[in-house]
Design brief:
Elements (H helix, E strand, L loop, with lengths): L1 H6 L2 H78 L4 H12 L6 H11 L4 H26 L6 H30 L2
Helix pairs in contact: 2-3, 2-4, 2-6, 5-6
């Protein structure tokens, strides 16, 4: 076998070395191109993941805005109807009948609101907690009026000013929450 290798002339060896060097350079080129393509594809995949994440976040924040708007509209509807009871224009049973009639198709999904807040908008939780605090104060005035009403004290004029005051604060906190939510969704 060594004799066969010795019988091959120098030009053939140089040609073989050139072919081997070309093949080696080709393999290195393919390796570098594949590595570059893999890096580009990984970057593209990461960008697509981030874009998808931001798109989902924006959709959820938009959904949260709509849910909050429906809840606020329902709450303000109850507010206006209860002030009619406080003024003595309708009785408590009429108020409850209207709320039941309105509420049949306007259910507020508080679990969904809180889930979206906890997953996609944690930075809004302090403002949301302020809204809940003022909602509690509105409910306290409403409950005090209801207790007096049950005892036969149908004139609720004394509750109107405190009810309007806490409801105005609630409205301000809700508008603040919606504004922060819109800002967060716009930047998502």
């Amino acid at each position: 076998m060594l004799e066969i290798l010795k019988s091959v002339d120098l030009k053939s060896w140089i040609g073989l070395a050139g072919v081997l060097l070309g093949a080696l350079l080709g393999l290195i080129g393919v390796f570098l191109a594949n590595r570059s393509n893999l890096s580009r594809l990984q970057l593209q995949l990461e960008n697509e993941r981030q874009r998808h994440h931001f798109q989902v976040k924006r959709e959820k924040l938009e959904e949260l805005y709509v849910l909050l708007s429906h809840w606020v509209n329902m709450f303000f509807s109850h507010y206006f109807k209860l002030t009619l009871v406080m003024k003595g224009e309708i009785d408590y049973n009429q108020y409850l009948d209207e709320i039941i009639a309105d509420g049949a198709d306007k259910k507020t999904d508080f679990k969904r609101i809180e889930m979206i807040l906890h997953i996609y908008a944690r930075e809004l939780l302090p403002t949301y907690n302020e809204v809940l605090e003022w909602r509690g104060k509105v409910n306290d005035v409403s409950a005090a009026h209801k207790a007096d009403y049950k005892q036969g004290k149908c004139n609720g004029e004394e509750y109107i000013k405190p009810y309007i005051a806490v409801h105005t604060q609630l409205e301000n906190k809700v508008e603040k929450l919606k504004s922060e939510l819109a800002e967060l969704a716009a930047n998502a």
